[in-house]
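Q&A log
Question type: sequence-to-structure
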Amino acid sequence: MAIKYFEYYRGNLENGFETIYGKKVQDHAFILTRKNDATLPNIDIADESVDFSRKRQQIITKDFKLRRFENAWQDVTFQWENIDRHLNELITEWQPEYREIKAGPTDEWGLFVQYDDVDKLQRYVGANAYPDNFDLFVNWLTGFSRGKIR
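Response status: OK
Response body:
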């Protein structure tokens, strides 16, 4: 099962949500990071027009929807196979939902994964509760948004 795209978010209504998207399109792949500062809107990663690559730079610059993200993406074409493999390794044991009631702000998170050969979107969500390897997953994935390509 090859990953077509994924979307990961974490945050809350008070502080906003950071979102990391990844997508493979034909001969290239990209990671797009939306920080929780609300300067960028959410984007529908499933939309076929959401496509970032060096070849499409002129299109990105002129397209109103895409140009706002012009500095928020990075090319991960050569890393995509490893991203696909490692993400699947990390989420193998995850349950669809994790919930815990606690005082204070809620820490919401979610991961949506669409595979090439599966019609249904895989969803993993949580509020104040996490899979055992969640910190490992977050550190690995957010490393891309900090420019650490592994």
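Response note: The mean pLDDT is 90.
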